[in-house]
Amino acid sequence: MNDSLPISEIPGGITAPVGFLAGGLYAGIRKAKKDLAIIYSPTPAIAAAVFTTNKTQAAPVLVDKEQLARSSACRAIVVNSGNANACTGDRGMQDAWAMVDAAAATLNIPRSEVLVSSTGVIGQYLPIDKILVGITHLAGSLTTTGSADAAEAIMTTDTFAKEIAVRFTVDGIPVTIGAIAKGSGMIAPNMATMLGFATTDAAIEPAALQQALTTANRVSFNRLTVDGDTSTNDMMAVLANGKAGNAVITSGTNAFRQFTSALEYVLIHLAKLIARDGEGATKLVEIHVFGASSEEAAERAAGTIANSNLVKTAIHGADANWGRIIAAVGRSGIDFDPALVEIGFNGLPILRRKYEIVLDEDKAKVELLKDHIVVQVNLNQGTAQAIFYTCDLTKDYIHINASYRS
Question: Domain limits of the chain?
Fold first, then answer.
């Protein structure tokens, strides 16, 4: 990411970019909360998306892949929470297409320009009649201030809504990206285990938009984990309507690098919010691995540490158990010399080369009791680095997931 790019966070979330509407309402899917959202561009727009790599894929994922395989033109995304519409067979596919058709008819756009997304319990049929009524009502009440309602409507076990908007310039023209996301449990890299939706008023070629999203996703949601479980419904989609009036962005240009940098900023921000809101979590934890022989090695080491239940429980208990960290690196499968490893918490040295322990238990306790912890691991093998985003593991995670369907 280009840290020198001037990026300003602004209010408005997913409706901050010019020409986008959104909204959310309670359709009666599962719990008494907003559970249906629509994001919409009245003017023509294009879409790019990345999806779960789980072999068990929900009906909306399959529908969206089919839609985008035909054309990148897309103006609306319909999202429900409370029910994943996953492992529901032919009926699930019919229900997903019914959501597409209802949105297309109400918004008066081609069915090919609608994407759908679902999140919630796996293996249960959608209350499709309620959802179709909700789509009809919601489509007629979308607003330029509806981002907060949409962000709330896509939540499941999330404890707070997640949204952001940023403004930057492309060749001197102001451009905006807005986004919302949901995620709290069943969160692990492999695309990314969550739902995320972004809008932009940038004018950009479809191939460039897909490339920018893939690049930004790799260093954000693909480096995010709460519990190591990859969902059946993951997707991250971006709509671009070109209303900013900039020259069309193409791959390989300075404008493309500026846009990609801003998109990375947005997705990393949301990834951190999801990690902070991990089910039962009390701490946002960043795993910084540097001094690696390659970025792949750094990523594998950081990911293994981030997914270690032993590391995550130690951090929850404010226990500076650095042995669990170096053990995780050791089982990551990378080639490194353990005697060269150095470890720290929030900049406080814990372990130096040749297993020199410089741990000050009292100072380490102070750092580990904070709600944002950066674990620094220097492999001293090269210059490559990677960051993973995770959280601590608590008793509440077990409580939440022991009764998720009830």
Answer: 8-276, 284-402
Which tokens is 238 given?
Answer: 């971006």
Query: Are 292 and 385 a contacting pair, CB within 8 Å?
Result: yes
| Residue 254 CA from chain centroid, whole number | 26
Residue range 8-276, CATH number: 3.60.70.12
203 vs 194: CA distance, rounded Å? 27
Let me know: does 289 contact 404? Beta carbons within 8 Å: no
Catalytic residue among 156, 176, 193, 260: 193
Q: What does each of the 406 residues of the chain score in pLDDT, given as a tens digit?
A: 555 679 999 999 999 999 999 999 999 998 899 999 999 999 999 999 999 888 889 999 999 999 999 999 999 999 999 999 999 999 999 999 999 999 999 999 999 999 999 999 999 999 999 999 999 999 999 999 999 999 999 998 899 999 999 999 999 999 999 999 998 755 554 554 479 999 999 999 999 999 999 999 999 999 998 876 666 778 999 999 999 999 999 999 999 999 999 999 999 999 999 999 988 899 999 999 999 999 999 999 999 999 999 999 999 999 999 999 999 999 999 999 999 999 999 999 999 999 999 999 999 999 999 999 999 999 999 999 999 999 999 998 888 778 656 5
Judge if pTM exceeds 0.85. yes
Contact call for residues 305 and 289 (beta carbons, < 8 A): yes
The CATH class of 284-402 is: alpha beta
144 given a catalytic annotation: no
- Shared fold status for 8-276 and 284-402: no
Report d(CA 60, CA 83) in Å as an integer: 11
How many CA atoms lie less than 13 Å away from 291 in the CB half-sphere?
Answer: 14
Token pair in block for residue 229: 């479980």
Work out the angle between the directed axes of helices 309-316 and 322-330 (0-180°, nearest 10). Answer: 160
Which amino acid is located at 35 in the chain?
D
Non-local (6+) Cβ contacts of 183 within 8 A are 158, 162, 193, 194, 195, 196, 224, 226, 274, 277
Burial class for 81, CB neighbours closer than 10 Å (0-12, 13-18, 19+)? buried
Q: Is the CB of residue 234 less than 8 Å from the CB of residue 52?
A: yes
